[in-house]
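Sharing a chain and its predicted structure for anyone who wants a worked example. Both blocks are below, sequence first, tokens second.
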Amino acid sequence: MPSHHAGTRFLGVLSILLIITSILFMTYGVKGGWDFVLQLRGKKLLMLLTVAYAVGVSTLLFQTLSHNPILTPGLLGYDSLYLLLQTVTLFVFGAVGYTSIGTLSKFIIEAPLMMMASLLLFRTLTKNSNGDLARLILTGMIFGVMFRSFNSLLQRLIDPTQFAVAQTRYFAQFTSVNISMLIIGISVMLISTVWIWRMRYQLDVLMLGRNASIALGINYARLSRSILLWIALLVSVSTALVGPVSFFGLLICALVNACVPNMKHQLRIPAAFLVAALVLISGQLLFEHLLGMQGVLSVVIEFCGGIVFLWLVLKRKR
């Protein structure tokens, strides 16, 4: 049990660091107007925590399902698919109709479409790849390029006013908070936490592979579908809150795999959330309060995540 105790200690250290970082984020540089500042930063802190959970846990679940530490929902085009749905909605209803549709209504329409499309997408990828990692990654990237290309085509067909409305959704940004979407995201996070935590032991068995899972009594097809639906919903939440972040989940899971020696999900799930939250909050504290917004956090995260992706691919080849 040494690895379990080491993992528990690691979670404790992460929790303490996250609390300290959150306090600094809420209070650093405040000279007056505490009520206004704490309310503003509190909303932003909740948004960062929600995004950290959605991205970190969805990537961890995806890697558990695919049995591969390189694949992420963003890499296989999940966030591009969500943005495509946004553009199609804008193209059909126009800028006035798009903005008049409430955040909750748009999410209720787009999230189920995202779930159904993700099931079809993942089944197509796994069916055509036959366990070949290179083919799986290549097929996923082709789907992602196809979604982005179709998205770009629709952008060129709409007028400049509609394009300006759509453009705000295509780049990750951690500075503004949509309260309605934040409430939805927190609700999804809480409900998914209950289900995922109940399934943590089945997720451990799932890592043994399809045949071993079935032999041990796991309903593999039903569990896989449930995981895919939660992944699609969490990706929808994170993309709706801050925009697409393709490599952030890969960066987080790589850190978790390196720091948590135990493969049990009762340690890996909270570790993924804590590491993601620590990276986002400390990064936003650095760029927003210490550097005066002279840098963009999403660009740095994607750059580091891309380097980690290349390193993991080259490491597997050796």
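Comments welcome. DSSP finds 13 helices and no strands in the chain.
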